[in-house]
Every structure is written in structure tokens, then in C-alpha cells.
Amino acid sequence: MSSFRSRERSQSSRHFIRPLDEAGVTPETPAPLPSSANAPKAAGTMQAPPEARPHGRAPVAIRAERVSAMFAPCPRGLEGVLAAELAALGATAIDKRNNGVAFAGDNAVMMRANLESRTASRILIQLAQGPYRSEQDVYKLALTVDWPRWFSVGKTIKVKTDGVGSALRSLDFISLKVKDAVCDRFRQADLGRPSVDTRYPDVRLQVFLSADQATLYIDSSGEPLFKRGWREDTGEAPLRENLAAGILLLAGYDGSQPLLDPMMGSGTFLVEAADIALNRAPGRLRDFAFRELRSFDAVEWESVQARARQAEKPLSALPIRGSDVSVQMLVKTRHNLKQAGLHGLVQIAQSNVLDTRPHADSGLIVTNPPYGVRLDEQEDLALLYPQLGAWLKQHFSGWTANFFTGDLRLAKLIRLTPKQRMPLFNGGLDCRLFVIPMVSGSNRS
To answer: Are 204 and 289 in contact (CB under 8 A)?
Structure first.
């Protein structure tokens, strides 16, 4: 089945405890945070809402000592899951947006969100927000931020700009203007200027432009949070780890149910399910960019890590199974399980999906079938789906099947009635999570 998946380019990452080859993918675009009028104020940290400021008056930048406003982008469709996660981690002023969640919290909340969130792509700290009409307005906004208070001149930087509805012609030029403002602010303080590193920067700065508002963020994560630190062998078109974790949570998986992925690929669902079952922080194997900031508190960070370690459950065999028709995928999954510290805890086997059998009377199937790109692949899948429906009816009464796919024909061709059709996006690809409870005699379309 894995022959339908496209191959992605790999590159190494510098923000991990051990080297990691991972797909280099642009993270999801952040949305602007809600105005400070809708969030709890910390003295001297929050800015006045844009509508209360005459155009042209310098916005007030947030100070580094008291982080307050943040934004966590995530795969589109997982905003509700992420909001629940952030609330459990102590975040306040939670506001779901497209592709992410705005929230407020202190440094401990920021650290916990990086370490423990399973679905966030990054944790961005808002520095300033204000109206703009030209590139120079964005430059002036960036100049209001006291950059030397956030990081030292010896740190390398990278600026990235995204926008929705902006009339400005070049986002790359905006990145250049913000970089100039950062360097000018350091030079004004007689500190020299920081160097730019577009590949492995110490500090990443994010600019987001709406039609008339510019928002500046500093990235507390570094490498995207879906890069957990365990994956060294991706296989073909691996599912991002935070998307896989979100799908498991949407499917109702809490770590107690038997789980099966009969088209496991490189084992992403298996690793994420095991981490949920063992209550292990998904970011435990990697490092984070907030350690490069002046506000970093090593004692507080050790406390956050210790709390996460204490919450972990003892290692034990788990009712999680995986299989794939490809021997190559079996080898890759075995390696990934070992890298994640799960060797011997999850059982895997080489098997055609239709030959796979349940290992319990009830449980969850969570899998990502191949989508099909070429016409002959789509024809093969059209033949496979009815066989999957018959396989489920014959062998998996009492189970709930969850198929995550970009091939929206599955719901019709599988000849079973999905209870839910949850819209999700795999990058820019419109997908669905089809949830099909297998109750004997009740699912035939």
C-alpha cells in the first residue's frame, strides 16, 4: 500500500538532543492574536487594542520579562483539540482561530506547551501588533521592540513573513525590513548587530500580516513541534506526528483501548498512541529555542521537566498493534519504535491489511490508507475499499474504524455508513477522518 505515497526530502535539525533527519516543511501560518482588550492584562506587557489607537501612533511592544500573549499554530481541523490541551496546561484567554489557538500564560505555561502539547506546531510569543499601510510601517513597528532585552547580539536570527489579504507586494521584503529594524535597535544600543542564519538560527522571528494589521512574534520552539526527536527514518510521505496525535485524540483514544493500525507505514500512529498510553511528554527527546532567550529560567525549566517525568507511567507491554504489507516499512517502524524507547512494548508484523485480525474483542482501528495519485492507483483503491468494508464486517464487530484519508470516495465505496466525517487538512490537502463503528448488522449502506 505504501507505494502510493510520495517521497519527501530530508534534512538534519540542530534543535534536537541527537541528530534528526526530517522532512523540511513550512509550518502552518499563524493568525493574529485577539486584542489585549480580550485577554488578561499583565502590568506593562499588553498593548492597547488597535482600534483605540490613531493610525500612525507607535504601538506599545510587549516586554520580555512577563510573557503574556501567545499563539500556537496547528494542523487545520485540530483547533478544538489544541484548545483543550492548552487549557489543561494552564493557559487562559483561549481563543480558537483558523490553523491555531491564541492564548495567554506565563513562562511556565509557554515551556509546558512546548514540552507537552501533542498537537501544536509551534508556540509563538507575541511581541507587538499594529496597523500598517506600507513596508515602512512594519519597520517602525519592529523598531518598537526592545530586541536586546529578548536575546543577545551573539545569537543568529531568521525572519519569516506570512500573510492573508495583505496588499504589500513582497513578503520577503517585509522580512528584510524587520531584520533591518532588529539590527538597527541593537546598533542604537551600541551592541553591534546580530548575524542572520537562514538554515539553523538561534532565534526565529515570525511576522504575520492581515489586510491592515501586522503582528510580530518570537518563536519559542525552534524546530516545529511535530519533530519529536525520535524519527530518524521517515519512509515515504510520513504523517506529521502532531497530526497523527490529533487524529488519535479525535478518535477518542485515551491510552486504555486496544489499538490497531493495519497500514502503519513508518509507525507514526503507533508511537504517538504509545506516548499517550504512557502519558509521556512528546517533546521529552528534543530541545527548544526558548533556551536561547534572556528570559530563560533554567530552574523553572527543570521543574517543568521533572513534573512531566513524574507523570509518566511505568513502561509495560501495550495493547497496540501495527502491520504493513511492506517489509521495508516493517524495518523502519521497528527502528522508530526503538528510537522512541518503545522496543518490545508494541507488536508489529508484516501482513496484508485484509489478512490482519483483531487482538481484542473491541478497540480502535486508526489508520491512514494510501490516497492514490495516478489514475491506475485510484482504480486499485476503488477495488480495495469494498474489500475493506467486508473485512471489517467479518472480523471487527465491536471495534470502531477510523480512516484518515484524502480520498473522499472512501465513504461511499467502502459500503459502510460513517458515523462522523471530520474535516482535517494534511498540509494543504483536504482530508476527512471517517469514523465507522462496527456494530453487527447495522452498518450496511
So the answer is: yes
120 Cβ contact list (under 8 Å, min separation 6): 72, 73, 74, 82, 85, 86, 100, 101, 113, 114, 225, 242
How large is the average pLDDT for residues 401-427? 96
Tell me the CA distances in angstroms from 293 to 157, 203, 228, 324, 413, one per residue in order: 12, 8, 21, 44, 53
7 phi and psi, to 5 degrees? -85, 140
Q: Could you give the residue ranges of the DSSP H alpha helices within 251-357?
A: 268-277, 298-311, 327-339
pLDDT in tens, 421-433: 999 999 889 999 9
Contact between residue 45 and residue 68 where contact means Cβ atoms under 8 Å apart: yes
pTM: 0.84
pLDDT given for residue 378 in this prediction: 85
Q: What residues contact 137, with CB distance under 8 A and at least 6 apart? A: 130, 131, 214
d(CA 445, CA 432): 19
Let me know: does 119 contact 66? Beta carbons within 8 Å. no
Among 19-33, 73-87, 192-206, 313-327, the minimum mean pLDDT is found in: 19-33
Helix (H) or strand (E) holding 92: strand 92-97
CB 231 within 8 A of CB 239: no
Contact 232, 340 (CB under 8 A): no
